[in-house]
């Protein structure tokens, strides 16, 4: 008698959201657990967004400089390289230079950078602020107005500035990534608050925060998994948004990715170490349910794309 593996079906489904305008990319849409194609439908495998910064990054590992250093300081060239050479599905433009505690670039400069990147690539663009809640409110409102019709994603919207960002997104047809500090209830509550303002849940993505391998990844995994289970098994409408894992920035600030081989010879090749650290973190968050990964090193992106392709999704 042939063995019939037991399967489950779920009464919930992750919303499919299309990003971009010229060449749209769909995220979400699954009605089963990650990679469980034997139990349900996974119409869109995890998508990869590659980081592009508006200013030259400081303090990054030498390995990153070896593959990205030729385009540092030129976000347009950087974005084009991510699309044409590295195979990014999406660009995540980080407006780190607008931070008042850093370069303090103006709103006008930020808008000009966003528009230049959008004109240079055909793939969708996510625009993330610097993390300064007051400046992000100002910058992202202006970005929303300047990119009307481009179907960009704005973020991160957090507890202290979600009202202004969500209102701007609603007014100018953008989507919003809401970020909360690794907590299921807070992720749900932020979506409730933004939807109460009037923004459609079809325009919301969840960024539940991410820890790198060895730096809270197990807790991050648990929270991502619980969000997915609540969406699928409890049909929780407010947790049925596609999820984002902004993992690149977390991985490449870990000492294991930055310390040289001379300083820690027992840790092996520094170049391989950083790439593997990012790849393993990415694999973990995919298994936990992340629909969109924000990554940094092109070799890690290549490995993750190969992994996704092997599952045929």
UniProtKB/TrEMBL annotation:
Pfam families: CdhD
Entries under InterPro entries matching the protein: Ac-CoA_synth_d_su_TIM-brl, ACDS_complex_subunit, Dihydropteroate_synth-like_sf
Domain CO dehydrogenase/acetyl-CoA synthase delta subunit TIM barrel residues, every copy: 17-303
The species this protein was found in: Candidatus Aquicultor secundus
Signal peptide start and end residues: none
Name of protein: Acetyl-CoA decarbonylase/synthase complex subunit delta
Membrane spanning residue stretches: none
Coiled coil feature spans: none
Phylogenetic lineage: Bacteria, Bacillati, Actinomycetota, Candidatus Aquicultoria, Candidatus Aquicultorales
Domain of life from the UniProt record: Bacteria
